[in-house]
Amino acid sequence: MFLGFDTSNYTTSVAFFDGKEIFQKKKLLEVKAGERGLRQSDAIFQHTVNLPVLMKMLTEELDFKSIRSVGVSTRPRNIDGSYMPCFLVGESNAVCVSSVNKVPLYKTSHQVGHILAALYSIDRLDLIKKPFIAFHVSGGTTEALLVTPDDEEIIKAELIAESTDLKAGQAVDRAGVMMGLKFPCGAELDKMAQNSSKEFKIKPSMNVLNCSLSGVENKAKKMFENNESNNDIAKFVVSYISEALSEMLERIMKKFGKMPVVFAGGVSSNSIIKEKIGKKYNAYFAKPEYSCDNASGIAIYAYLKSL
User: Going by C-beta distance under 8 Å and a sequence separation of 6 or more, which residues neighbour residue 156?
Assistant: First the structure.
């Protein structure tokens, strides 16, 4: 068994990987009604409370003594200066477990975990041996990455395009909270958007490969103030994000050539985005349980490092 910890700013998660199957327990962090996120101190407190409960649930089902190595996300990305205090909770627990069990500890980034979870979800872990494009689209990240094999890190994710201002998940959550939805708003906003029959002509704001999403929030506010349908507002938000991601990918393909494309991160599970981009580019999308924050990819990282 290979154990993974991930304590992001949205979810507490632990997972076992036996080389074939994932066993996972996770819990969304609680956000007060009307708020659009958590302070780091609040996230750390909730992770500290959640982890022992999740570990007990997981180990009641599996043999805890069979752990061969432990993986943990210690930072958002594998770049200098990438840091969030909430990851310290997972790291401290991972150090304890590896020390008590006298097994190796492997540290990586939250982003690498997302990518590996997505590859597992689509049954394409073989892609770690070749270049591919990965989109990490979530509450704090809207990035396109050139992913290549790496002897030390398993995969190396190089940033090649991003949103230069508002991130896709922020646009979704801000619009959702404005309409009275509970944070995080992605799943509910997706349902609302599917109930709209309105079509929008959208030309995303682009700068070479990068996109800008700040206009999404401004337009959604105007629509809300004009008493337009909440379903139409939801449809506009996800349609704009979809068009922006599609245009980013179109330009990336022209510059870097055609290669496999994988989408990870919570926003990637949106049905409109998946339908548009999946059909147009034959892109891979992780299943929802592996799109959102999870420790599955971290457990897989521990497994790959142990080979």
Answer: 78, 147, 148, 149, 150
Interatomic CA distance for residues 45 and 196, integer angstroms: 39
174-223 pLDDT per residue, tens = 999 999 999 999 999 999 999 999 999 999 999 999 999 999 999 999 99
Tokens standing for residue 173 = 């959550």
Secondary structure element (H or E) that encloses residue 41, with its range: helix 40-61
Angstrom CA distances, 29 to 9, 32, 104, stand at: 8, 10, 29
Predicted model pTM: 0.95
**Contacts for 130 with CB less than 8 Å, ≥ 6 apart:** 149, 260
Q: What is the pLDDT of residues 244-300, one digit of tens each?
A: 999 999 999 999 999 999 999 999 999 999 999 998 999 999 999 999 999 999 999
Backbone angles phi, psi at 21, to 5 degrees: -120, 145
